[in-house]
Write a structure and sequence with these properties.
This protein is mainly β. It has six helices and 56 strands. The strands form 16 sheets. Strands 10, 11, 12, 13, 14 and 18 form a six-stranded mixed beta sheet that branches. It has a five-stranded antiparallel beta sheet with strand order 47-50-55-52-53, with no helix packed on it. The longest helix is centred in the N-terminal third of the chain and has 22 residues, at 3-24. The relative contact order is 0.08.
Length: 890
């Protein structure tokens, strides 16, 4: 046998052995945990470990899965994964939460890298002593749940000047060499600088000047510090910090300077790179005092100056503004910022300013479009490193290896950021975008096995939130439980009552064959079919439960309550005029009727009737034919709830901002308040309710901000009583507010309950403007629909508006353009071949940008009809006939 053949046989045997080994090991090298394709959001589940916390700040995860976390009020908690119990270990006596000390307290916690051996735990907190300072202290743990108070060693103190905002946020983390990093805020009042650089050098206003802190090489505030703790409780200075030890007018502890409020910071132990989220200034737009505000995700590959208060974002510069004379000086130079403040005790010429890794304003930004718009509060989490040897079954997969996790407290998102081989920004992607349900994430950390732990602060800043919690996010790379969903043909009636149940909306991500079990809640035997029919013979409330099980035994449940002994009352809203449109000078004459099988008489005290005006934004007209199934709330309330207002305001209690009811009372009789407050919402600012500033909202239109103000001001007056069951209402809210919006007359009635439980019926009347935007058509065929027009219309193209009442209407005007095609537009009822009630033989306008108005008669066929607008031109060329902006009935 030749050597060549022997070599081939040996190679084949080697491959065979490798293959057998992989099979025996369960193919570990291609396991789900090491999958490199984008994981589906549904593979992640969030488990609440501890809830109803009070301003949680920072967490630390031990190698055995124990979690330690702190609240700003002073409490240290321990979560035990074995018992799944959370208990308070100790309550620190921290600076009281007063207006003078807002933002201080127990802010940071971290475990020593050798915690399993030395049991050291470190805190960054504000003791309730004077002179006031934040300090880094080391304690020794005795077991899991006991802190040896007498073991405290104070490593470092950061002196503070008390002021309203504080900007004293701090965070703790380690590098692989056992160096401790501490982030510190600039301890500067930001509110008197209009959201720009706080560089006020007026005597007596030292706390309004960040040059004394963040821009000061001889001050520990507005920095990321790096020290090396020693066993005796002291510390040494590692080599390689920003300023060599002994350099005049500097602090050797400084690793990075020029930070505003680095509230959350982390160190990548694999590379030594430091990341932090920089909570940026408040200016909503560029102005004479400098650029608009940006939040930042910063990256320090080495020590450096990150610009504040002389630069922001990607080194956008501020001018040297004189607060006394209100005059502008020259812009600061990124290559050598000069600190000329009389409060500066450090060097005057500073190291070159470094650009942020990621930066974003209140509004959206093309550079990072995924980050959206709204309030801002950037934070930088850890870099994830996949470790095959320690990975748990529920840890994040290898797909996220080397990804930097960033998050925003205000916008409630988490992103995984990808870096290139030089650790420069490459891309980002949302993490758990569709099912994260984050409640203002304030810190995050990975456990040894790769599970992600997140502290969620809760909905409103500065209060004890019910939804403040510690959660663990786990990954499921294998079988996923099915999702049970029940639908029924009815949920209320009188016995005997047959109900058709369906599981058709249920699903299984893994497409497994499922088994079904129905418990009907009335003592009858369970059913095993997918879509049973069940008859209820007794009156009452019956809880029907569907349980779906996949072949591996994973289960899911859904529940619906069937009420027998009562039927839903029938509510009917009607009017004497047109039931689709309102006319400018015609009042609404309406009647609400209620019928109920079980109630011998209708109790009008249970009848709620209200009229709502839903305005149309100039950029997005009100939709007129989408089905509305619930009584609409005030449009301003809906806009407010979709914004970030509730992060700082509550309805009737003071948070970081005033209560909405207090705002309403203050401006109840101020005629200028609607415009002034709308401008304040858009531009931001402070000074009217103490020193705290309101974030800008440049993404809101004046119309939308005005609706929010209108809702808030409405809280000053007692809520108006219900409308009577019938009457006449003048429709005035749309006047002078083009484009016009919609009116909704909504009515609900709750019955007496019959032999079961009370039920509520509702109805509404939707009246829209006579001017109808083409792009709001309910259906289009062979037509392109943009945000403003209907275009690319050809022969036999059509669009449809459904359920249109033409009572009192005799004409329709089209606002259209056509380049070079004369054609016909017919209006049919019921279908494209239905009766013709209007014909427009139109002429080309000669230019797509040239729109003209043409009015033609239209016939009322009676009742409500689906109107088909059909284009006809049989002779060629018969493509690209028409562009419709709007049409208006008359």
């Amino acid at each position: 046998m030749s050597e060549q053949i022997k070599t081939r046989i040996q190679a084949s045997l080697s491959l065979l052995i490798v293959g057998i080994t992989l099979i025996a090991q369960g193919c570990k090298d291609t396991s789900a945990a090491e999958v490199m394709t984008t994981p589906e959001d549904n593979r992640f589940t969030k488990t609440i470990l501890s809830n109803d916390l009070n301003e949680p700040m920072e967490l630390a995860v031990a190698a055995n899965g124990d979690v330690y976390f702190v609240e700003r009020s002073g409490k240290l908690y321990h979560y035990n994964p074995s018992t799944q119990a959370t208990r308070v270990v100790y309550t620190f006596p921290v600076l009281p939460d007063t207006k003078e000390g807002f933002g201080n307290g127990l802010l940071g916690v971290t475990l020593d890298p050798a915690f399993e051996k030395n049991h050291y735990i470190y805190f960054y907190y504000t003791p309730n002593t004077t002179p006031v300072a934040n300090q880094v202290s080391r304690f020794t743990m005795a077991g899991q749940d006991s802190l040896i108070i007498a073991s405290e060693k104070v490593l470092l103190k950061v002196p503070l000047e008390l002021e309203v905002s504080a900007h004293t946020g701090g965070s703790l983390d380690w590098d692989r060499d056992g160096n401790l990093y501490i982030s510190t805020g600039d301890n500067t009042v930001p509110f008197a600088s209009n959201g720009y650089a706080p560089i006020d050098q007026i005597p007596g206003r030292i706390t309004f000047d960040a040059e004394r802190s963040a821009g000061n090489t001889n001050d520990l505030r507005g920095k990321v510090l790096r020290i090396h703790p020693e066993p005796d409780g002291s510390y040494t200075i590692p080599k390689g910090n920003l300023f060599p030890k002994g350099t005049d007018s500097t602090r050797a502890e400084i690793y990075t300077m020029g930070c505003r409020n680095p509230y959350r910071m982390s160190v990548d132990t694999a590379t030594g790179i430091v990341y932090w989220g920089e909570v940026g200034p408040d200016a909503g737009q560029n102005g004479d005092q400098g650029p608009r505000g940006y939040d930042e995700i910063n990256q320090a590959k080495k020590p450096g100056n990150f610009g504040w208060p002389f630069m922001v974002g990607d080194n956008k510069t501020y001018p040297d503004y004189n607060f006394a004379t209100k005059t502008l000086g020259t812009h600061f130079k990124p290559e050598a910022p000069e600190n000329k403040s009389p409060s500066n005790t450090g060097l005057s010429i500073l190291p070159p300013a470094q650009k942020a890794l990621i930066w974003y304003p209140y509004d959206s930004i093309e550079t990072f479009p995924l980050l959206g718009n709204g309030g801002r509060c950037a934070m930088a989490g850890p870099v994830f490193h996949y470790n095959k040897e320690t990975a748990s079954a529920t840890g994040l997969p290898k797909y996220f290896d080397k990804a930097l996790f960033i998050y925003d407290w205000m916008r409630n998102w988490i992103y995984a950021v990808r870096l290139d081989s030089q650790y420069n920004y490459k891309s980002m992607e949302p993490f758990m975008g569709s099912n994260g349900d984050f409640r203002r994430p304030v810190d995050m950390a990975f456990g040894k096995g790769g599970d992600l732990y997140v502290l969620e602060y809760g909905s409103v800043y500065g209060i004890d939130n019910d939804d403040a919690r510690l959660v663990r996010i786990a990954y499921n790379g294998g079988n996923r439980a099915p999702v049970a969903k029940i639908t029924t043909n009815d949920t209320a009636g009188t016995a005997p009552m047959k109900v058709t149940f369906s599981s058709s909306n249920s699903y299984d991500f893994d497409k497994d064959k499922l088994t079904y079990e129905w418990n009907f809640g009335d003592g009858s035997p369970a059913a095993a079919e997918a879509n049973p029919v069940h008859e209820y013979t007794k009156n009452g409330a019956h809880k029907a439960i569907l349980t779906i099980t996949d072949p591996s035994g994973a289960k899911s449940h859904d529940t619906v309550t069937i009420r027998t002994g009562n039927t839903i009352p029938v509510v009917k809203v009607s009017n004497t005029g047109n039931s689709t449109f309102y006319f400018n000078k015609s009042p609404l004459q309406y009647t609400v009727t209620v019928t109920d099988k079980e109630d011998p008489s209708i109790n009008n005290e249970h009848l709620v009737i209200g009229l709502h005006y839903v305005p149309a934004s100039k950029n997005k007209p009100a939709q007129g034919h989408q089905l509305i199934t619930v009584v609409p709330a005030h449009p301003g309330k809906l806009l407010m709830e979709g914004s970030d207002c509730k992060a700082c305001h509550q309805l009737d209690k003071t948070s970081v901002g005033p209560a909405f009811t207090a705002v309403a009372k203050r401006y109840e009789h101020d005629k200028n308040a609607p415009v002034n407050l709308a401008n304040k919402i858009i531009k931001g600012g402070g000074g009217n309710w103490g020193e705290h500033s309101m974030a800008a909202h440049p993404q809101l239109s004046m119309d939308d901000a005005g609706q929010i103000v209108k809702y808030i001001l409405s809280l000053a007056a007692p809520q108006a009583g219900n409308l009577p069951p019938s009457g006449t209402i003048a429709l005035k809210d749309h006047l002078g507010k083009e484009p016009y919006g919609n009116y909704v007359l909504a009515a609900t009635y709750t019955d007496g309950g019959g032999l079961a439980t009370p039920l509520t019926g509702s109805d509404l009347l939707l009246l829209r403007s006579l001017r109808v935007q083409g792009e709001d058509a309910d259906e289009v065929k062979n037509i392109d629909r943009s945000s403003k027009y209907l275009g690319s219309i050809h022969n036999k193209s059509y669009f449809v508006f459904k359920n249109i009442d033409l009572k009192g209407i005799s004409k329709v005007t089209y606002h259209y353009s056509s380049l070079n095609r004369d054609a016909t537009l017919e209006v049919h009822t019921g279908g494209i071949d239905g009766p013709v009630i209007s014909t427009l033989n139109y002429k080309a306008t000669g230019d797509w940008e040239k729109f003209i108005d043409v009015t033609v008669p239209i016939k009322d066929p009676g009742g409500k009809n689906d109107l088909y607008f059909v284009f006809k031109k049989n002779e060629e060329p018969n493509q690209h006939l028409f562009t419709l902006d709007w049409m208006e009935y008359q």
